[in-house]
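User: Hi! I have a protein structure encoded as tokens and I'd like to know what sequence might fold into it. I'm fairly new to this, so please keep things simple.
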């Protein structure tokens, strides 16, 4: 647990930069350090939290195939964790068209398990929008907003997706 908490702190620090900007080199260094500590955690003790964290770090580093593998390991530890299924969907989406069907199946499982992580729902919505699946993008962004209605960035993303889909906005 100590390794996982330390890695969580490294990952959180990668997103924080007092003035609101993110230095790419510092971000990559912090996320790499987080990934390394998460991997130490799962080496010491197999845990879903360790694999989930490692997968998120790998995803942030653009290591989509390795991230999918890590999320699969997390899923072995706990098959009913909606966030793991959500990240599996995201990792598959980022691997391109050949993994689109798997991404949709993972998303369906995450939603069946009542995924309620607003940032992850938003990120999934943005990624589905990027691949042109605006129906899913809108549904995910709306779901994110239903949980965290004060999220300005999600409101903007939803409005842009409505515009892209030539639909009137109601956000």
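Assistant: Happy to help. Inverse folding works backwards from shape to sequence: for each of the 171 positions I chose a residue that suits the local structure. Here it is:
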């Amino acid at each position: 647990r100590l390794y996982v908490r330390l890695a969580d702190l490294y990952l959180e620090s990668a997103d924080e930069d007092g003035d609101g900007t993110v230095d790419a080199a510092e971000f990559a260094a912090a996320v790499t350090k987080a990934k390394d500590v998460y991997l130490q955690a799962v080496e010491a003790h197999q845990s879903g939290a360790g694999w989930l964290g490692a997968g998120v770090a790998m995803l942030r580093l653009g290591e989509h195939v390795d991230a999918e593998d890590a999320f699969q390991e997390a899923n072995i530890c706990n098959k009913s964790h909606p966030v793991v299924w959500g990240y599996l969907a995201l990792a598959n989406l980022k691997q391109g068209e050949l993994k689109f069907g798997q991404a949709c199946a993972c998303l369906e499982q995450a939603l069946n398990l009542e995924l309620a992580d607003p940032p992850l729902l938003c990120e999934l919505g943005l990624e589905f929008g990027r691949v042109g699946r605006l129906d899913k993008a809108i549904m995910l962004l709306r779901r994110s907003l239903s949980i965290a209605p004060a999220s300005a960035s999600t409101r903007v993303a939803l409005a842009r997706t409505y515009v892209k889909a030539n639909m009137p906005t109601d956000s």
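A useful reference point when you look it over: Residues 24-44 form the longest helix (21 residues). Feel free to ask if any position seems puzzling.
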